[in-house]
Amino acid sequence: MSGTPPARRSLVILFLLYFAQGLPFGFQKELAAFLRQAGMSLTNITLARGLSVPWLLKALWAPLVDRYGSESFGRRKSWIVPLQLLLAATFVAAAFFPPEVSLPALVGLILLMNFLTATQDIAVDGLAVDLFKGQQLGSANVAQVVGYKVGMLVGGGLLLRASANIGWRGMLLALAGLIILVLLATLRLREPRDTSRVAEVRQHLSDVVATLMRQLRAPAGLWLLLFVGTYKIGETLVDALYTSFLVDSGYKPAQIGAWIGIWGMVASTLGSLGGGLLASRVPMLLAVTLTSLLRVVAMAAECYLTFLSPPLPLDIIVVSIMEHFAGGALTTAMFAFMMLRVDSAVGASHYTVLASVEVLGKMPTGLIAGFIATQLGYRSTFLLGTALSTVFLLLLIPLRRLPHVTPLSASDPPSP
To answer: Cα(334)–Cα(145) distance, rounded to whole angstroms?
Structure first.
């Protein structure tokens, strides 16, 4: 990597960091197979999803990541390197506690994995904000989204298949080894020095929190929160029902898995690449607008399927590819836009709050989608989701007119 230009080297390391974060998520996504094999009830398996709670709460300790860290070693590396060591050690420990041996110990270790990974995510997001500016964030968020998806694929599908030969212990030790390899690459990273304004804000935890709250409460901050919290409401409403719609249309889970799990994942990854490329070539808000329009077209195509009885496999494949491509493109453009709009002095905290709002914003419609479809049917529900995604575009108007970051005022300086 010594001959790699610094910007490209940073991009490769960023990809690897997000890849490392995708490994535990991919492993946990497939964990249900091992838990069921060990005799765990379906109720407890679904309740095990609650072990991801650190991802929902991480904004609570994000200011600590902005405040503390050794600038001589690297303010973000001071967090990332120890967290990676601890995560690798947690995987090694979990290798000796398969579900059939000690389920309580495994549950505790998985909860610890999520805490470590969620905290690392705060630091890595802050690192991306520190390293990349402007339209460079398009490429940075390709590294983010694609790296995470590749990590999920390796940590879940590939190692799950390999577990038939290497066993539970071999699978967990392989995950630990991959984390260590990423750690070695992380040590090569050089972080930029803080500007005088950033250094001043980060002198005290109270200044970090005060700056964060000022940005969130400003008009631009409030509109941004509303924008981030609503942009996927319609999409989530339809996505929660799409597989069930195909099953009720007469198709088998194996067929649907191929159409969505294979074609859909490939299309989503290509969409992420396309969204990042677009965000690096045109103004960021325009990239979000264009990918949002593409998403509306894809959702309208899903509505079209409800008018067919039943939809043909080719129709389903084409529409699934469209929907996943549009979703991947919008997600990458949106994440780049979020990074562009954060205050770099509190980049980890500010972006973490936005990311948490993004996750929370998708939850309500996903939870009530079944109830709505029961009352309205698939067609009306899909039309409702498309309409909500179209209305969301109106929120782009005020964001276009407001400043990116609220500047410090003379009457509200950081604490001495």
So the answer is: 11
Task: Calculate the alpha carbon distances from 229 to 56, 237, 285, 314, 373 in Å.
Answer: 14, 14, 16, 34, 22
Helix intervals (H) in 154-195 = 159-186
pLDDT at position 42 = 60
pLDDT at 414 over 50: no
Instruction: Tell me how many helices (H) and strands (E) the chain has.
Output: 19, 0
Burial of residue 285 (CB within 10 Å: 0-12, 13-18, 19+) is middle
Nearest to 212 by CA among 398, 26, 5, 67: 67
Q: In this predicted structure, what is the pLDDT of residue 38?
A: 66
| C-beta separation of 402 from 316 below 8 A | no
Higher pLDDT, 179 or 410: 179
CB contact at 8 A, 330 and 275: yes
What are the chain's domains? 6-193 (1.20.1250.20), 205-401 (1.20.1250.20)
Tell me the three state secondary structure of residue 320.
helix
d(CA 15, CA 11) in angstroms, rounded, equals 6
pTM over 0.90: no
* Interatomic CA distance for residues 30 and 180, integer angstroms: 22
pLDDT in tens, 189-243: 888 887 777 878 888 898 899 989 998 888 888 888 998 998 888 998 898 888 8
- What are the tokens at 412? 């509200």
Can the peptide bond before residue 310 be classed as cis, meaning omega within 30 degrees of 0? yes
Hey, what are 354's tokens?
A: 């936005």
